[in-house]
Structures are given as structure tokens and as C-alpha cells.
Amino acid sequence: MTTITLGPSGTYSHRAARAVADDGDIDFAESMTAIVEAVADGEADRGVVPIENSIEGSVTESLDAFTEYDVAVVREIITPIRHALLAQDDSFALVASHAQALAQCRGWLEEHYPGVDVEAVASTARGVERAREDPDVAAIGHPDNAGDDLELLAEDIQDQSSNATRFVAVAPASERAEGGGKTSFIIYPNADYPGLLLELLEAFADRDINLTRIESRPSGERLGDYVFHLDAAAGLYEERTQKALEDVEKLAENGWVRHLGSYDTETVIE
């Protein structure tokens, strides 16, 4: 079974993917969209992508990819994020890392290296590669990424000690399951009237289903038109969830509703 995640080797996505597959079965891509597309097209059996960070919020590229490509979510993996500053020495002039990592360490960088230039790259591991190649570049990544050729200048530099990221394992749409403690929905009402969002939420609230996340993303069809991403703390096997889904589908009769399946959550600490 081939699993694809954000590369190169050493990213936080790679660490999360190890909960799904052995290292020898993990391939890498340069974007979340490419990962989801590979699974949808049958080029990989599983994909592992981040969807939410406790400091910076949702990873919108992943959410948009779920709207564009028809896949299933079969597992949720929560992993604590420990950032470190890595460089050949402390004379660097630029910090390179993934945009999310830079944002998660913004306060620490401003306090300890005010005015330092930052550059967003495709992944934390790409930033580490830059630091290995150029003594003027420091990286933000996991402490284990220092290896033998980079100094560990500082550890736990994230602005919140509780920093954690939610990853999901995605599979072909045919593998959607009904058993699990959570279910993810994507709803495109293709409508706009007062109380629409309230009615969508009431479909779940009236059945005592807790929504653990709700996010709106532009549909791309027209300005002010949105797709809604919802996570519900209930499985599709439950009658209350099926009834809520029926109500939502009626409200979105001019658009569409997609459930990504039900799944369970685990926490992985490395």
C-alpha cells in the first residue's frame, strides 16, 4: 500500500504518515493538492495531509482540495508540533520554513531575531535543506532534523506550548465508512437567503450533534458564494446523523452535499 504525503523526508506530515505506513511505502509530493489528487486518481492508496493547526487554524489548501477531488477521510491523526531553530551557526540572515511553521513561531522570532528576513518554502524539510546548503539560512523544523551538520540553536520555539496539528488519512471515495466517532461534510447550498446557515446548523443541533468545526471557503463560482466544511462528533451509522444529512441535502437541493465518511481519532507523539 503506497502512502503519499508532503515531502521531502522529515516533514511533520512525514512523521504523521508513519502512523499509516512504513517508511518504505511512503512517497512524497510538493503540495496538499497534489497529494489529494494522487489518491483520487488512483496513483496512491493513501494520502496524509494537515487540515488544522491549534495556532494558525485551518490549512485551506487541504480543504479546497477536498472540494475539488472526491476522496474519503478514513483516519484522523493528531500530533504535537515541536519547532526548533536549525542552522550551521548563529550568523544566519534568513529563516526559511513552511508558511504555517513561520506563522506558528512569529512571536518568538520577533522577540529573539527582530527584523530577520523570513521566506516561505514548500515544507519544513525544504527549509532544512536550504539551511544545509547555505550558511546564511536558518530553518524551522523538528529538532531531529538537525542531524550531524546543523546546530540546534533553540528548541520549542512555537508561540504556544500546546501547538498541535490535525492530519487526516485520505483514501479513494469507494472506501468511505459509516463507523467512527467523527464525520466530515462539505456542503455547497448554491443559495443565499437570511437564516440559511442557521438552518444548516439546526439540522445537527436539533439532534444533539456537536459540530467540532465549521469553516466557509469561497466556492469560486462568484463573489460571496461559499462552500461549508463541517466536522460532526457523530458517526454516519447513527440514525441522528442520517436524519441530519437528509435535512441538509434538502436545504442544498440546488447545490450538493458530500460526506467524506466517518473515522476515528488517534494522537501520535514522536
Give a concise summary.
Helix content is 26%, strand content 35%. It has helices at residues 12-17, 32-40, 60-68, 99-104, 106-112, 124-133, 196-205, 239-251; strands at residues 3-6, 26-29, 46-53, 57-58, 71-80, 84-87, 94-98, 117-121, 137-141, 151-155, 164-172, 182-188, 211-218, 226-232, 256-263, 265-267. Helix 7 (196-205) packs antiparallel against helix 8.
CA radius of gyration is 20 Å
Mean pLDDT score, rounded? 94
Total strands: the figure is 16
Q: Report the span from N to C terminus.
A: 23 Å
Shape: elongated
Q: List the secondary-structure elements in sequence, H or E.
A: EHEHEEHEEEHHEHEEEEHEEHEE
Main structural class: alpha/beta
How many DSSP helices? Answer: 8
Helix content: 25-40%
Low-confidence stretches: none
Q: Please, what is the oligomeric state?
A: single chain
